[in-house]
Amino acid sequence: MNFISNIWKHPKTSAAGLLIAVASVAGVLSQQGVTLGKVGSGTVVTLASALATALLGLLAKDPGGVASQPAAVYGSASQQAGASTTNAKLGAWMLIALLIPLPWMQGCTGTSVAENIVNWTPVLQSAVATVDSTAALLAPADAPIFAASTVGFDAASNLLAAQAKAYLANPSASVLAQLQTQVVTFQQQVNTALLQAAKITNTDSQQRALTAIQGVATIVTAILALVESISSKAQVARMAAESGVKLAAVEPFLNESRAAEIVAAHYGEPVEVARVQVAQAEQAEMGAGF
Fold this sequence. Notes:
Blueprint: H1 2-9, H2 11-31, E1 38-39, E2 42-43, H3 44-60, H4 71-74, H5 77-99, H6 110-134, H7 143-150, H8 153-169, H9 173-198, H10 203-229, H11 233-241, H12 247-250, H13 256-267, H14 271-287
Antiparallel strand pairs: 1-2
Helix pairs in contact: 1-2, 2-3, 2-5, 2-14, 3-5, 6-8, 6-10, 7-9, 8-9, 9-10, 10-13, 10-14, 13-14
């Protein structure tokens, strides 16, 4: 129940997270053509997004900050300064979250998206190599389970890398269809492996296994988002229909901080920004049916 106590201890952060989620989900719904009805000349979805954005702006410039409160409530001057800095950073990151688009969704053409995917492939293959070496670190009883669930990662990553390069060289509909199929296939392999690793009872082995697989999962999720950005609604719907193991099923076993670190390192951006971007990408994909 720690998450409930955290809401009460950090109400401003919790409110910011909720508003960012509303704005992100509204954006996804708008992209999918979901309106939820009309409001004046607009829609319910656009109204919700606008309200969330406006409230985020107000929250980021909250006039009831630490400086206006008595020291008896907030402690020493150094504590007040620390709290003020925290509030300032929170407001900055909330605004950045609304202004900075997902780095892997910036490419609006097949060529730029393919280049982005190709740029991810060395990181992907490095993550797969980490998975290959992790089995030796697990308890003897757990290593075979882990090895069996990840056995196809090498072939899948090599095929995905090859198809990304093929699409970059020839951005045709047929090559895109192959890329769509492969990224969903790989995503399903990774999601299934996460569920299998979660069944490992040895705590140390389970943590090592999940951490290694998540490195691959984060990158595959980013690549999936890229492929979605150059696919039609019908194609995305078909891809989602082929994904039997949904992101919602594996989300409890993912470490958001680790995912943000991977994205931040790849794009050379602050972890705080990457954390919001990762959350937005996951929400977008779950909203699309993955």
